[in-house]
Design goal:
globular; alpha/beta; 14% strand; 11 helices; 8 strands; 42% helix; 8-stranded parallel β-barrel; TIM Barrel; single chain
């Protein structure tokens, strides 16, 4: 069984102090949830302090972006060498990077390759815009993004894919669980052709886009969906904890709740 995976993408939110307070509010309870790989992705400036707070816990750390060069005259950029000492995961190909900062499929391909070569595990994002969805081009867009980003990348399990329809990110308009599962199943078919069926079936694929503690059950109940990349709800300790806890309860109903008997 694929181990469920829930990551919180804090985006450009929280000062270092606020980031520390957020982690403090949920660290103990989040650490006690078993059966789910839990990852926090704060802004770059908080990585050092959050890294220290998470030591000895089951919670892992990720970055929100990375340059495809290891060093050089790239003012303001962060390299895989810098991240390697601090975190295990890095989000790549997020739609906000694509649309706001002009990142191309080719650039994302370079980032995926250099991340893997330096021991970082990409959380690679794909997703279509509203007009593409309404024009029936979802599969065309997803196929292009996956094939381009993974071009010349050797088969690996050190990769997580997040399907995030752009029209659902931060809008409060989430896809239905069934819609997301259909697209994620299609992504697995692409991976089976690109690599092989075993890798495709073993790789974890998440849903992202207006995920909350109120709707996570709809997605996690779908066998094809292995977890969530959470945006706004990950900035609230109780909401994020609720998402992770429900994921564990639905995917592993035989496990006792770590909070049984607590109010």
């Amino acid at each position: 069984m694929r181990v469920p995976f829930v990551a919180g993408n804090w985006k450009m939110n929280t000062t270092v102090t606020e980031a520390e307070e957020l982690v403090y509010d949920m660290l103990d309870r989040l650490d006690r949830v078993e059966g789910v790989e839990k990852v926090l992705c704060p802004p770059f400036v908080a990585l050092v302090s959050i890294n220290m707070m998470l030591r000895g816990s089951s919670i892992k750390l990720g970055a929100q972006n990375m340059h495809f060069e290891t060093l050089g005259a790239y003012t303001g950029e962060i390299s895989p060498l810098m991240l390697g000492e601090l975190c295990e995961f890095v989000i790549l190909g997020h739609s906000e990077r694509r649309w706001y900062f002009g990142e191309t499929d080719e650039m994302i391909n370079k980032k995926v390759k250099v991340a893997l070569s330096h021991g970082l595990k990409p959380i690679f994002c794909v997703g279509e815009r509203l007009e593409e969805n309404e024009a029936g081009k979802t599969r065309e867009v997803i196929d292009r993004q996956v094939m381009a980003a993974l071009d010349d990348v050797s088969p690996t399990h050190d990769l997580v894919i997040a399907y995030e329809p752009v029209w659902a990110i931060g809008t409060g308009r989430a896809a239905s669980g069934e819609q997301a599962a259909v697209t994620i199943k299609f992504i697995r078919s692409i991976l089976a052709k690109l690599w092989n069926r075993d890798i495709a079936q073993g790789l974890r694929i998440l849903y992202g886009g207006s995920v909350t503690s109120n709707n996570i059950a709809e997605f996690i109940s779908q066998p094809e969906i292995d977890g969530a990349l959470v945006g706004g709800a990950s900035l609230k300790a109780e909401d994020f904890l609720g998402i992770v806890t429900q994921t564990a309860e639905i995917k592993y109903p035989h496990l006792p709740s770590p909070f049984k008997g607590e109010e």
